[in-house]
User: What shape does this take?
Amino acid sequence: MAKVPNRFNYIVWVQDLLDTTSDNIDDTNLEYARRNIVANHLKSRVRPLKTDPNDPLIPLDTLGIDSIDFTICNPPFYASASDLLSSAAKKSRPPYSACTGAEVEMVCAGGEVAFVTRMIQESGVLKDRVQWYTSMLGKLSSVSEVIEQLKHKGVVNWAVTEFVQGTRTRRWGVAWSWGDMRPRMDVARGIHHLPKHLLPFPSETSFSLPHSTIAAVAALVNDTIRSLDVQWQYRPQISTGIGFARANVWSRSARRRTLQHGTASASSRPAADDEMDEASDGDEDAERAFGFKIEIRPGEEAGGAEVRCRWLKGVDHVLFESFCGMLKRRLVAG
Assistant: This one.
């Protein structure tokens, strides 16, 4: 059984846990799981499920569940018992944390990459019935293989991270979603030495306006966004706004169409404090194909300002790049 701290780091990464189902193919592990659930008063939140090796890894239909927020998984690391023994023999000294896992926990055909690949295949059927599919990985080399599998499957929204506990134990995490809500960049791009083509597209960008006040920049941001056909909510107390657009409505052709119709969108308006919300309702998704947040903060130089733009929603990174480019040009031009 693995030490708790790295698993805690994993839980923190997916800390918005609302409801969990645990499945297990080993009777002994299942019994221990049941005891832990009772001992920690989690019977209303965790349901253990006995499964067979060929059963679905994400058995939503078996459980009678329509959708869940995310999955967590600690897959078998090794492709065979000999692979496990060979790995142990290569260590120059006994491992910091002794492996007490049973073979059924540590070994499966193809190892952790094959196991997570099964999850990816199942996710292609379940799609957004799970908001985020996640798994821990025991080998850094597995991260690249799993991401290539995700890209091959057509996933465009994924996240990676590294779990470090002390100086000895490292694990890695990968998550993917068929939805369009984009995680923060520090959450999505947590392995800094990974090749760039394996990292998700950056969901944040910033630029400085050294000779502008926050108030002046805020006024210009509001004027710029309100001239577009977008839903725009701005909170002046924290110099932050959130907007949603159905498409690229800032291109020249889109602005010409807006002028031909006479007005900008009536939905571009200041928001009350309780309206600042990054989520979207299902019936508004068509009007919210692209979502963004703009924050205005003091710049590094006295009297200046910094504008931070974060991608909240969407599947097309070109749209995000285009929007940020437009905003920067407008603000720099004044």
